[in-house]
Structures are given as structure tokens and as C-alpha cells.
Amino acid sequence: AVNLLNDLRSKKHILAWQFDKMMPKRENAQLAYLYFVPKPHKEGTPLRPIVSSMHMPTTGISKFLDRLLRPLFDKHVRSTTIIDGVDLIRRLQAYTANGYLKPTTYLCTFDITDLYTMLPQEESLDILTEFLLEHGYTKVNAVPIDAIRKLARLVHTENVFSYEKRFYRQVVGGAMGSAFTLTLANVFMWKWEKRLVQQQVNTNENYGRHVQYIDDIFFTSNQPLNKINEMLDNGNDFHPNIKLVRQIGKNVSFLDVFIANDHGTLKTCVYHKEAAEPYTVPFNSDHPHHTFRNVIGTALLRAVRYSSTLSTFQKEQRTIKLMLLYMNYTPRFIYSRFHSFITIHAKTSNIQPFIHDENEFRAIRQKMLNIPTIPEYRMTSRIESDNVTSDPESMETSVLKTKSTKSSK
């Protein structure tokens, strides 16, 4: 890492502040280690391998590449990126309003098995170069593509870690725990899904991949079931490392949203996984009081946004109340927060914390759906950061030029 950074700096392929950001601190450098986290929501409770890379020599480079490239990716694939459940519901509302949702429309989801650990290393770097060139980049923040590739190769191929007193180097895939792995996997998926995305666009269908759980994909289709399976089979054959697990029907779950095509009518609600237990922050825990208010407010906000009908919202409201009672929230506190939430958003003087009118609920729901969510704000901020100069050397040059101009006057 040190040799590569010194070489790139000597050739002026990276700036001084970039060099300082990426240069590992020898006194803090540590070898990464491997550990496993169970996935209880999956059958058989498989393990997710995590490489703890907090103090690896390449961690600074990984974080730098992630900050450098993720805004570009977010900007150029926004149309096929699902940020969260609210974003998905908005897309489906527009799809329905345009008359594309029919009684015969299929809802489809699929994910890719072990995407992170199956990424082909050199091929992923080729695709990264292709992505940058296709979108007109020869440099990113003054860093040439060739330098980006060299840095990416170092992070991706020199992933050395320890496990049970032995040393290993990962030769396939990227490290789960490395910041740059997410961005590189996203770029790899961009190449893989190109043809499928174009097919969906040509037929006015929905297609989206979650911004964080990048191997989770949702799309709609008005084709016969055998044609959909044929399309996914072709996707399965695109690369030997890609294996799809699909779910196709009139009812599917995606993220935390349950979606149903009820004879051409879109219905949605909050999806609770079978393995999920009704836990939240206990009321008797040592947290600031606003935390308990936020727990209830956030749960109710999600319930309103996700519930397509008043009865669905009322059912979710009861589920929330039972969860809160189970976590020792007092009935009085629950009632006061429910009442506060309803009166603020419904603008009603009703002493009961309930909405009884279907039209009123729909108006409130649409208003809340139109408000950007926190993940949407974060993505917008990342995209906008791509258009703002974050190079101190360039800023310093700009200041000097300004002073020089003023002096001449």
C-alpha cells in the first residue's frame, strides 16, 4: 500500500490531501480477522462471513475509493435504484396510475446467492473501468482511471486476514466489511443487469435494485410466467458466479413491504418476517425520553406510508401497540403518542387517536409519501457532493487566483 501510494504521488496521479487520506498509519495498522454472523431469517441459519478490516493497511484506500466512486454510481443508476420501501411504493403508484398494472401483472423478486464473496476479482475491475469510460470519466477528482484501477486492485486482491491462528488471502470475491466492496459489487451488477433493465424499459415495466442490499431486485412483468422464468434463466447463465433465487406471483414481499396485485388493484402493507420478534427499545431502558417518542413516531409513520387502506393501517396500529405493551411502554404513554401523531397529521380535534375516514387517511398517506425519507436525503447529498469540489489544493488555487485578480484591480 505504501509503495503504490508513493508511486502514484510521485507521478502526480493523486493529490497531497488524497495521499494523506489513504496512507496507512503504521502505529495503528493491524491484520484483519475473519468472524461469522448468523442469518436467522434464512433456512438452516447460514453464516455470513465478515472480515474485520478497521485497521488494515488498505482501509484508508477502500474508504477513499468508496467516497470517490459511490456518488458517481448513485447518479448514473438512480432510475433503477430502490432506496427504501417508500421509494418502491411511489414507483408502484406511478406504474398503476399509468395503467400498466393489470390483473395479469406478475410481481417478481430475486436475489443473488453470496454475491459479495463470489465477485470475480479481475473481471470486476474491468467492469469498473468500463463503467467510468461509458459515462465519460477519464479522471475522477483529478485521479486518472488507471490510478483508480491500481488502487482498487490493491484493495480487492490483497485482502489478507487471519482465522483460527492461520493466515489467508481471499482470491474470489470481496471482503464483507470493506467499504469499497459495496461500490464494486454495485458496478458489477450494473453490467450484469444491463440487458434485463433495457427489456423492462422497453415494455414500460418496473425494475429496481436496493441501494444497500444490492443483490435484492424487484420488477414487474405482464409477460406469461414461462417467459419470465426464461428471462431469469438467461440471467442465471450470464456468469458462472451468479445464481438467482426467485419469487414470482401476485403477492410478494420486498424489503419491509408486502405488495399484492389484487385483480389489478395495488395493495401494500408493512411486511413482518416470520423470524422477526416484536422487540424494540424497552421503555424501562436507560435511554433519553425522546428515544421512546421517536420509536412510536417512526413506527406509525411507516404504518401510514405502507398501508394502502385505512383498515390495513388500523391493523398495523394494533400490532404496534401490542409490541409496545410487550416492551413495557405504559398505556398512558402509548395513548398520548398515538394521539399526538394523529392530531398533528390529521389536524383533527377528535379525542380518540384514530382516523375513521378512508378519504382522510388517503390524503394523509399521500402527503407523508411525498416527504423525502432520511435514506433519500443521504443519497441526494452523496450525488450533490459529486458536483462540489472537495479538493483543498484546487480550492487554494482558486483563492490565490481571486486574490491576484483583486490586487491587479
Structure summary:
By secondary structure, the chain is an alpha+beta fold. It is 50% helix and 16% strand.
Helix-strand layout with pairing:
Blueprint: H1 2-10, H2 16-22, E1 32-38, E2 47-52, H3 59-76, E3 81-82, H4 85-97, E4 106-112, H5 115-118, H6 121-134, E5 139-140, E6 143-144, H7 145-157, E7 160-163, E8 166-169, H8 179-192, H9 194-202, E9 207-210, E10 216-221, H10 225-236, E11 244-249, E12 251-254, E13 257-262, E14 265-270, H11 289-306, H12 310-326, H13 331-346, H14 358-369, H15 374-385, H16 392-408
Parallel strand pairs: 1-7, 3-9
Antiparallel strand pairs: 1-2, 4-10, 4-11, 5-6, 7-8, 9-10, 12-13, 13-14
- CATH fold assignment of the largest domain: RNA-directed RNA polymerase lambda-3
**Gyration radius over CA:** 25 Å
The major β-sheet equals: 5 strands, mixed
Order of strands across the main sheet: 3-9-10-4-11
- The portion of residues forming beta strands comes to 15-25%
- Which structural class is indicated by helix and strand composition? alpha+beta
The quaternary structure here is single chain
Query: What's the architecture of the largest domain, going by CATH?
Result: Alpha-Beta Complex
CATH H-tier superfamily of the largest domain: RNA-directed RNA polymerase lambda-3
Count of discrete domains: 2
Order of helices and strands: HHEEHEHEHHEEHEEHHEEHEEEEHHHHHH
- Cα shape: globular
The CATH class designation of the largest domain is Alpha Beta
Mean pLDDT: 86
Low-confidence region ranges: 388-409
**What is the share of helical residues?**
40-55%
Distance between the terminal alpha carbons, to the nearest Å?
48 Å
Number of helices: 16
